[in-house]
Amino acid sequence: MRTICADKYNIHIGHDSLAELDTFLSKSYYSSFIILVDENTKKKCLPIVRKSFSTAHSLYIIQIKSGEKNKNIRNCEKIWRELSGQNADRESLIINLGGGVITDIGGFAASTYKRGIDFINIPTTLLAQADTSVGGKTGIDFMNFKNQIGTFAFPKAVFIHPLFLETLDKKELLSGFAEVIKHGLIADKNYWEQIQASVGRDLKSRPAESWNKLISESVEIKIKIVVADPYENGLRKALNFGHTIGHAIESASLKSKKKMLHGEAIALGMICEAYLSRKCCGLSSQELDSITEFIVSIFKPPPLKSQAKQLIGLMQQDKKNKDSEINFTLLSAIGKAEINNSCSEELIEESIHFLNAICNQ
């Protein structure tokens, strides 16, 4: 097992992480334990967590439905009501067992209930293990805008058990892999090259054990950035590469019959924003080709059905914007992010046309 210190808490990665969870709970002072799950993690992951306990920990279960569309104020109210119904006090602990939706909404509910109670994360998807469960961002979607309401609140610990990845289908693995790609692109060219060379194209056949190093590398990159800038005043904005256009694509898909997973939308956002990087920040044409060819080979995305004007309208509501300008994190080179860039609407439209042309090849 590997333990990474994130300043305010520890992240435990490996097959012994659940034993560490048992130790954490056994030594804790908490008055009660509430575990937040969805229908999938209740069935596939909760039994594994329970079996890891050496002593009987009494857990009250709160269940919400899976999926981004359920990361909303209604489900947050449900969590608050159930906490109140169980007489949860400020010494209670919420255990978030699930993917990014669970860790986001669970962390937000915990950070606001009785002005804040403790929580821990047990991420079960690659997206959550490599990215969303660490860093201290919590939130819910509002009016179809991603993470429009939220807080900065840090977990007391994170326990990453890579064997949970065996419960995922290829689509879910791909979604998480987009954030792994992002970490290499914004911070470490050597890591990017390792991803290209060693991961291969069939993620589903990759043994869970072999994910340990990849997850650890991504967590190390993210935590180094977050510790330096926990509240996103500067450096942490590097983590937004691909997310300005990606979040707009994801939000637009939530209104359609064919909804996209977060990482699928971010992968498309990275292609568009790599194009903007070429136009605005000097990213070389060779590196642009390297990024787009690799992402297309992994995700095989179809062209977007959403109109560029619709996507730009969604980007104008992005919480990262300043002075009414759409804010981007771009790349001057692979491994070097450049924060606080604005681009014209015409150039943004051009990047979306570039994406569709690539997808049509």
Tell me about this structure.
By secondary structure, the protein is an alpha/beta fold. The chain folds into two domains: 2-167, Rossmann fold (3-Layer(aba) Sandwich), CATH 3.40.50; 172-360, Up-down Bundle (Dehydroquinate synthase-like, alpha domain), CATH 1.20.1090. It has helices at residues 17-26, 39-44, 46-51, 73-85, 100-112, 126-132, 170-187, 189-198, 211-228, 243-254, 262-280, 285-299, 308-315, 345-360; strands at residues 2-5, 10-13, 32-38, 59-64, 92-98, 118-123, 137-142, 145-152, 157-160, 327-333, 336-342. The strands form four sheets. A four-stranded parallel sheet has the order 4-3-5-6. It has a three-stranded mixed sheet with strand order 1-2-9, sandwiched between helices. The longest helix has 19 residues, at 262-280. It is globular. The model has no long low-confidence stretch (mean pLDDT 93).
Keywords:
alpha/beta; Rossmann fold; 2 domains; 361 residues; Dehydroquinate synthase-like, alpha domain; globular; 14 helices; single chain
Low-confidence stretches: none
H/E element sequence: EEHEHHEHEHEHEEEHHHHHHHEEH
Rg is: 20 Å
Figure out the total of helices.
14
**CATH superfamily assignment of the largest domain?**
Dehydroquinate synthase-like - alpha domain
Task: Tell me the quaternary state.
Answer: single chain
User: Biggest sheet, in brief?
Assistant: 4 strands, parallel
Provide the CATH architecture of the largest domain: Up-down Bundle
- Helical residues, percent: 40-55%
Distance between the termini: 43 Å
Domain unit count: 2
